[in-house]
Design brief:
The structure is a homodimer.
Chain A lengths: L25 H34 L4 H12 L20 H9 L4 H33 L2 H6 L1 H25 L5 H10 L5 H10 L6 H30 L4 H35 L5 H19 L4 H13 L4 H26 L10 H25 L10 H7 L4 H14 L4 H30 L2 H15 L1
Helix pairs in contact in A: 1-2, 1-4, 1-13, 2-13, 4-8, 4-12, 4-13, 6-7, 6-9, 6-14, 7-9, 7-16, 8-9, 8-17, 9-10, 9-15, 9-16, 10-11, 10-12, 11-12, 14-15, 14-17, 15-17, 16-17, 17-18
Chain lengths: ~475, ~475
């Protein structure tokens, strides 16, 4: 690593950087400004990667979010090692950001570990805030009445989309690969939960979020997310103790239902008071901050009742999207989402370990064969869901199926919990990771194809018109 | 602490929260979701405090930012202990956020310290990002040509505003309080640097940022900030080694000048290419993200050459404010600033330890008497600067002097460095902190009075007209 700023090697300039924070202790006085410098540098890398990746994909007619994921892979653990996380076993020595800080900002090796830990923590939380903002925005853009209308269809899509890949995956692993019952059930379970982030972002990019297809996908993905959490709780308890406590599962299902229905019912009752308070406020950012307070509280409640923060954010978006302030709020949320959401997608890409995909490494081969099977089941198991959609209106069934494909990080949580409990072999664990990578990266182009194809016939145009009409209203 | 959610005490629900992040290790799998929950809760507290405080102040005709500072005091270390920081000696046991997480989210005591450390780190970095965004926004709203035009006047204001309080303070402490030379110089030095954040925010709230007075204050505060860093380097080296290395001071002054002039000259040359790239981009948020990349890079460079990140952010704002995209950019930066800036002001308030102001505690009394002297010098030493403004045009001299009063966090850095080096006695250290608190809280109402008074005569109206004309252009 060359010294970019030889001037900085003078003694005076290796002392603590006198940043604005009031540091009264010597050690934190050295660490805190370097953590900030590390975060600034990480954000530069993240934004550059997201825009370069996004722009390239936009030019070759692929969804920009796919470019962000690939950009994340390039700057992440599989290539440049700029954005790496301690959770995946990286240390300060693996982080190029830390090396850059050492050569440009005079970071001393003895506090490198502390700075790495803290700056990764900050980037992780910013990424989480990114997906929270994304789901808040998706909630705002969704139409509660339309969601309720498509509710039964979305529920069927969600349930079929959980049961089919689970059954196909578990039975296939038992029958074809002669696997034991618990690991087979675990891998089957990892095939169940759709990752709503990727799909929602692609739908938004294609301006298909407020179409009937879009709303069925979002509704199903939300229900699917809840089902995934329930499945995870069941499987994790099975792997740990060998039995399933039905009472706990019942509590989880009950609290999920109570949370979603409760927040929406209570939220609609309280919305007029919310607007009343906002109208009385005189300081800058009154609507945005008031709305964020609602979103953050519901995210917090979602997180602590062992659902997910993003479900709370989505519910908050849905409620506030029903108010007359919807368009003002959307306008103000867009720049914040633009700033935070790329941190999430780049992080997802950055955590992707492409090493497990290398067929030249003999230890990967068994995993890759199982992976091929899991990918097939993952795609088939979700594509069939589109064909369960009933009702008089014609919908783009293929788009719905494709929209449910990405497993994203939820699948990785399964792999992580499974590996930690010892239920999964290395090859099965790698196979699940490959399945998550493949479904995450394949879904955006498939979705685009499904909606573009659809543009040819009458259906697609009517969907487009609905979207435009909704945008204008 | 009551259990708000008794349901959560069931065994299943005390396991790790399956949030979206891919956690493959058991321990980080437990910590990360709780850190996120802690940050969500902290943000709720911060936004509530900032809006309640801001709205109350707006109603009693005080600047809202004063309300945010007071709101910060209420939720901070002096009162509710919701927002506390390890740098000021707080532990997990002192944090009400951690107590809330223990009672609502099942945080176990053995990881409470880790969660507290990480969530404080995140809130601290978000606060720093807040002041970076604030200075970026101030840079965007500033007018480079006007700043250059008022440059000589701003330079005189800055230099007089550093020399006067330093000389009065040091000599007074030597003569009246019979203090030793080094502590007297240290306390004198702590009186020098204006905190730009508070003043810039008040100017923006009063719509006086683009007036001649506003631009002189901003220009002088920026120069003052650089002088303050130079003074800190000199005094810290004096306290540590008893001598001053002039070569190092020269390097610091040279790099500061080279950085500010260099970024602005090079930035103006590169601005057309920046606009060219942005025009070619097709993905969402192209202008905002491209601008943020510039701001983050300059902030990083500002931080690592031992100036401040905020100087880089201000320079980036100045350059981009010269382009034709200024108004689009301002519009998109506003919501982000609205979300991040309150985190900074609430943190400043939260770190304010009101205990040192209590005259009933005998150990505070000596400090309070010295403090009264320092506050007087701090105010007089800056108010005189307004009367040094020369030139044919009439300006509001009092407003300029008042605008330079707040010492904010820069003064606290002096107190921290001085206390760490052993140069300051406890009472002198407390006196500096009281001086910082007093100047920070007194400046916003004084500024408002100065500008309101001014509205009465012709001068003020012309200033107002300039501001409006600038807004419309």
């Amino acid at each position: 690593m060359p010294d970019f700023f030889p001037l900085l090697q003078t003694p005076l300039l290796q002392g603590p950087i006198p940043l604005l924070a009031a540091e009264t202790e010597a050690s934190s006085g050295e660490v805190a400004p370097l953590v900030l410098a590390g975060v600034l540098l990480s954000l530069v890398v993240i934004y550059l990667a997201s825009k370069v990746g996004g722009e390239i994909c936009a030019r070759i007619n692929l969804p920009p979010v796919l470019g962000e994921l690939v950009g994340g892979v390039v700057v992440g653990v599989s290539a440049l090692h700029l954005i790496v996380f301690p959770e995946s076993g990286a240390t300060a020595a693996d982080s190029m950001i830390i090396s850059l800080l050492q050569s440009t900002a005079g970071l001393s090796p003895d506090i490198a570990g502390e700075v790495f830990q803290a700056q990764s923590e900050v980037v992780s939380v910013l990424a989480e805030m990114g997906v929270i903002l994304l789901l808040f925005e998706i909630g705002l853009e969704s139409d509660l009445k339309e969601l309720i209308k498509v509710g039964p269809q979305a529920a069927v899509v969600a349930i079929v989309g959980v049961v089919t890949p689970f059954a196909l995956g578990t039975l296939g692993l038992l029958a074809i690969f002669q696997m034991a019952l618990v690991p087979a059930i675990f891998a089957g379970a990892a095939l169940t939960a759709t990752s709503i982030g990727i799909t929602a972002k692609v739908l938004s990019e294609l301006r298909q979020l407020s179409t009937r297809e879009g709303q069925i996908i979002i509704g199903a993905a939300i229900l699917d997310d809840i089902l995934g959490i329930v499945v995870l709780a069941v499987v994790a308890s099975l792997a740990k103790t060998g039995e399933v406590k039905l009472a706990n599962v019942a509590i989880l299902i009950f609290s999920a239902a109570a949370f979603l229905i409760g927040t929406i019912v209570i939220g609609r009752l309280l919305a007029p008071y919310f607007l009343g308070v906002v109208k009385e406020m005189k300081t800058r950012g009154e609507l945005l901050i008031a709305a964020l307070i609602v979103a953050l509280i519901l995210s917090y409640v979602g997180a602590i009742i062992h659902l997910e923060a993003i479900l709370g954010a989505f519910a908050a978006g849905l409620i506030l999207g029903e108010t007359e302030k919807r368009h003002d709020l959307e306008e103000q949320v867009v720049p914040i989402a633009d700033v935070l959401v790329p941190i999430f997608f780049i992080s997802v890409g950055a955590k992707t370990e492409l090493g497990v995909l290398n067929p030249m490494d003999p230890s990967n081969r068994e995993g890759l064969i199982i992976a091929a099977f899991l990918v097939l089941v993952a795609i088939v198991g979700k594509v069939v869901t589109g064909f369960t959609v009933f009702g008089p209106e014609k919908v783009n069934k293929l788009a719905i199926g494709f929209g449910m494909i990405p497993r994203g990080e939820v699948g990785l949580v399964f792999a992580g919990v499974g590996a930690a409990s010892g239920a999964l072999s290395d090859s099965l664990n790698a196979a699940i990771i490959v399945m998550v990578i493949a479904t995450t990266f394949i879904a955006p182009p498939l979705l685009r194809i499904a909606f573009n194809q659809d543009d040819g016939d009458g259906d697609g145009k009517s969907a487009e018109t609905v979207a435009l009409a909704a945008d204008e209203s």
